[in-house]
Amino acid sequence: MNTYTITILLRIAAVLHLFLVCAGASMPKAVNLRAHLAVLPLFLRQLFFVYFSFIGLMLIGFGALTFLFAPAMAAGEPVARGLCVLLTAFWSLRLFAAFVFDVRPYLTNWIYRVGYYAINLIFLYLLAVYCFVAWKGGGL
Known about the structure:
single chain, mainly alpha, 0% strand
């Protein structure tokens, strides 16, 4: 596979990060998060908000770095390859978490079910692309 093709695959991955941010923004309504958080102490509500915001900012950062530095990542430049290793680890753990949490009570309609499976396919795509680029580096 040539570096141009890898660059395209990485840019697709970058855009998928933005889709995940949009999906994350719709999640509070889908799971009635406001009601669940209302019974928690203020500190825990604030902590959850910080974590939720942090994850969103990280996804935006991952997407931006991937989009801007896709050619360097595809060429196997050392720092870009290190970023791919980090993202491989991140998406491996996130895909694992998808099987740990039981979301079935929240998949109340077909839209949520399709969305859930689509998101997991995105996780799998991101893992595959970053793993491939980290492994192959510039030796395409």
